[in-house]
């Protein structure tokens, strides 16, 4: 009986091909949109996590924050000093590398070529803390750092844009009005989670940067790479205690700095992308409801059009359950076809978006299976009422119907 119902449903769908296609659109769009949104969201989350991991392993990032707010508050940022950095180096344990850092945007010139980029003032431990690997050359020596030598290390984007295939070592760049000798080039890291090019950067010894580029002794950030993941919380607590003491923050006063764990940042961004994916998927799922209503509407029309056919079947001995099954299977076939097409469409859109956005194509089999099952359930739920109406028709009244 079920196989006969499926054959009849297939014949009905093919007989009214255009109407069936229009009926499927709601299911196709709904299933496709949900799968595309979830797949793109998973890929985005994976890319954010991978990009943030490029900033360094077991990383703590200390930054000064606004000192006072509101009426009478200065709202000024009290930057870190070399004394803060020295105190951390002298007192922290279980630290792999600790590096102060400041940045400034400048125009970088070599010969007739120039690019707008950022210059970062730091020391040699910065490359260890952020897991930079040298492609050629060397990091800053102790002499470079102490004397503030006019030397620099360049990222891959700067190397490609200004030097092409030529060897940059020993060449001189102009950073604004300051000249520096290229002593090293680091390997590429690509774009960050925030869409910025991590390789479009020039590194200088901090003292040279402060004197010649920034014109001040300010330190904007302190990067602390902890030796092991188990020690991150302890080092973070010690860092906060040392900075509070150095910056004379009272017992009842709020910190005028922040120390953030990279794992917390990863977790926060991942939670944000997951929430946005869920919201967009919920909006897309509304299309499934609309598609279900469309199926119910078309099935009601089909019942009205085929009233006489139903009456003949009932008059020659067909049972109500057989008529019910026929129309219910027809609704399920429509919904399942729509679900299959929607899955293919959703995966295709997600694949195209992953390529365009340079994110991983991460499929979720459970979501695909759920979307398929849900499309079938829509056929059952919204097809049941028209099918029941057909099954309960009076054969005599149905035969009289024109």
Descriptors for this entry?
single chain, 402 residues, alpha+beta, 2 domains, six-stranded mixed barrel, 13 helices, 10 strands, 57% helix
Q: Structurally, how many domains make up the residues?
A: 2
Strand order of the largest sheet: 2-3-8-5-7-6
Overall morphology = elongated
The first-to-last residue Cα distance is 28 Å
Structural class: alpha+beta
**Order of H and E elements:** HHEHEEHEHEHEEEHEHEHHHHH
- Return Rg in Å: 33 Å
Mean pLDDT: 79
Largest sheet: 6 strands, mixed, barrel
Extended strand count: 10
Low-pLDDT runs of 5+ residues are 68-74
Number of helices, counting only DSSP H or I runs of 4 residues or more: 13
Helix content: 55-70%
Strand content: 15-25%
Structure summary:
By secondary structure, this protein is α+β, with helices and mostly antiparallel strands. It folds into two domains: 183 residues, no CATH class; 134 residues, no CATH class.
């Amino acid at each position: 009986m079920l196989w006969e119902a499926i054959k009849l449903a297939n014949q009905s769908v093919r007989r009214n091909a255009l109407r069936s296609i229009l009926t499927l659109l709601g299911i196709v769009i709904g299933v496709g949109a949900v799968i595309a949104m979830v797949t793109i969201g998973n890929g985005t989350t994976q890319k954010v996590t991978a990009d943030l991991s490029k900033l360094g392993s077991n990383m703590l990032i200390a930054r000064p924050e606004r000192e006072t707010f509101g009426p009478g508050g200065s709202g000024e940022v009290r930057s870190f000093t070399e004394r803060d950095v020295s105190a951390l180096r002298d007192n922290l344990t279980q630290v792999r590398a600790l590096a102060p850092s400041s940045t400034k945007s400048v125009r970088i010139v070599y010969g007739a070529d120039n690019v707008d980029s950022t210059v970062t003032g730091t020391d040699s431990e910065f490359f260890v803390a952020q897991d930079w690997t040298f492609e050629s050359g060397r990091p800053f020596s102790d002499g470079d750092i102490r004397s503030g030598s006019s030397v620099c290390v360049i990222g891959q984007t700067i190397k490609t844009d200004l030097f092409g295939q030529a060897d940059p070592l020993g060449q001189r760049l102009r950073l604004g009005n300051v000249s520096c000798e290229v002593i090293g080039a680091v390997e590429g890291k690509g774009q960050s989670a925030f869409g910025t090019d991590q390789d479009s950067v020039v590194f200088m010894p901090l003292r040279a940067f402060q004197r010649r580029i920034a014109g001040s002794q300010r330190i904007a950030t302190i990067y602390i790479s902890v030796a092991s993941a188990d020690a991150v919380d302890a080092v973070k607590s010690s860092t906060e205690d040392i900075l509070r003491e150095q910056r004379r923050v009272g017992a009842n006063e709020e910190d005028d700095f922040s120390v953030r764990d990279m794992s917390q940042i990863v977790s926060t961004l991942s939670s944000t992308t997951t929430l946005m994916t869920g919201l967009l998927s919920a909006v897309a799922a509304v299309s499934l409801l609309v598609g279900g209503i469309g199926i119910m509407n078309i099935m009601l029309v089909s019942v009205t059009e085929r009233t006489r056919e139903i009456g003949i079947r009932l008059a020659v001995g067909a049972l109500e359950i057989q008529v019910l099954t026929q129309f219910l299977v027809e609704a399920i076939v429509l919904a399942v076809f729509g679900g299959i097409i929607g899955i293919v469409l959703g995966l295709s859109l997600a694949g195209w978006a992953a390529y365009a956005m340079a994110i991983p194509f991460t499929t979720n089999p459970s979501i695909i299976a759920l979307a398929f099952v849900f499309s079938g359930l829509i056929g059952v739920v919204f097809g049941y009422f028209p099918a029941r109406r057909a099954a309960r028709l009076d054969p005599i009244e149905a035969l009289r119907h024109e």
